[in-house]
Design brief:
Layout lengths: L10 E4 L4 H12 L5 E4 L7 H11 L26 H10 L8 E4 L2 E4 L18 E2 L5 E3 L11
Length: 150
């Protein structure tokens, strides 16, 4: 399946209530791109899309499960005996279980935790300084990644 010429080259599975997700969206936009933003809690991805995202990111399905602030424990999803199908069923039924933000670009797919992980797959460089919502610098004025703690 090819992307229409006017379609954004970058897609983010985004939760606007999540600081990490907002930081990643900011970094994408700081590169000059306007991504396709999928608010996955309102427009959940399909079972196949979740499976494909994990495959493209090189992650097991279990790595896409979010525990904090979700029904993870109540559903017993920590049970290592549960197979991928059971985990996918849970994520489709409860999209809050899908870890975020997932970012899809021509250079790859990543679960962008920490938010700086998105820099590895953005096709274009950063256009200037960027700091996370907590004030931590991520990119300097020249668009270069800042070393942690610098």
């Amino acid at each position: 399946m090819t992307r229409p010429p006017d379609a954004p080259a970058i897609t983010i599975w985004h939760n606007p209530a999540c600081g990490t997700s907002r930081n990643v969206l900011g970094l994408i936009r700081n590169s000059g791109a306007e991504p396709r933003v999928v608010e996955y809690l309102r427009d959940p991805p399909s079972r196949d899309a979740i499976r494909d995202a994990a495959r493209q990111a090189g992650l097991p399905i279990r790595a896409l499960l979010r525990e904090k602030g979700t029904p993870f424990a109540e559903l017993g999803l920590g049970d290592p005996a549960l197979d991928d199908d059971a985990l996918l069923d849970a994520m489709v039924a409860h999209p809050i279980l899908i870890n975020r933000p997932m970012v899809f670009t021509p250079l790859g797919v990543r679960l962008c935790r920490p938010s700086e992980a998105v820099l590895e797959i953005l096709p274009d460089p950063q256009r200037g300084a960027f700091a996370k919502e907590d004030g931590a610098a991520v990119v300097d004025d020249a668009g270069r990644k800042v070393a942690p703690g610098a």
